[in-house]
Amino acid sequence: MTTNGGFEPVFCTIVPPHLLDKLARSEDPALSGPAQRTLVRDAQERGRRRVSAEFGLAATPTAKAPADQPLRTLYDAGHKTDLPGTEVRAEGSEPGQDATVNRAYSGLGATFDLYLKAYGRHSIDGDGLPLDATVHYDENYNNAFWNGEQMVFGDGDGEIFLDFTIPIDVIGHELTHGVTQYTANLTYFGQPGALNESMSDVFGSLIKQYALGQTAAEADWLIGAGLLAPSVTGKALRSMKEPGSAYDDDVLGKDPQPATMDDYVRTGRDNGGVHINSGIPNHAFYLAATALGGYAWEKAGQVWYDALTGGELTERAFFGDFAKLTVKAARERFGDGGDEFQAVEKAWEQVGVRIL
Length: 356
Hints:
By secondary structure, this protein is α+β, with helices and mostly antiparallel strands. It has ten helices and ten strands. Strand 5 (about 145) and strand 6 form a beta hairpin. Helix 3 (about 100-120) packs across helix 4, helix 5 runs parallel beside helix 7 and helix 7 (about 280-290) packs antiparallel against helix 10. The two termini are about 30 Å apart.
């Protein structure tokens, strides 16, 4: 359950709709076909998620993970869309021949590890939720998503996107939508929706850094590095270090993310620009984390986690509301005059977010 009165019927994907829409309009059928198919499939899954949430049709897990271990189950959709598909790997079993299955299994484990070992959180819901994931979903499916119950990964079209299990932060990003679902339950529209997306980018990046043993200075702060095909002029889906610089491609266009409130994008598309304006709180986290140095999950990550899960973040929180809670969390955990408090406060100031 959530702390704010029930589940929001949210269907969260890693690839923003504006990118798929751009591809869907291409004159090259090798690009437009998979993108159009993905957009249709996403719309169908979004509708299914809404109905399931409204009528309480979501499956209730009967099993829980043991105290300090994940409970992972991997399924293969066989390029169809029936979920979850055929079970291909269970918790504790040895790696098989399918690299996609093995990557997904490892990514689920890395996500579980960060939340447990850094924050004492027992799985996505804090109560041992089993981690289920389906790979090889649909044909040339250009996305990965959390549907409120499980992870789903496409193989990509090979032209623009590669296998969606390649970047570990994509796995962490989508599973973190589950953490948000079970805590603040941020509304998926406008600034609350951009915060929802930013929480997933922040902790997705931290999961990658934790798995690689990287400090804030060593991290690349990219979301989805390795996902774009070699023909694409770009390095990732998003950059927390330099929002707006992740790609600049003839087909995809230029990364539209702003780094500060001066360039906040007002749009009715993409649920009010949730994948675009998330660049602002993303950049605030990057600034705080790099100012503090060391391992980003230990200080900046702890502050963000405290603000997300502390019970005071409302479903319709704006950037300034969240900023206020991070400053409060930094003060309560590290003290009023500490570097942590000052770094967090200054980071929000640098991106132009007024603390409400």
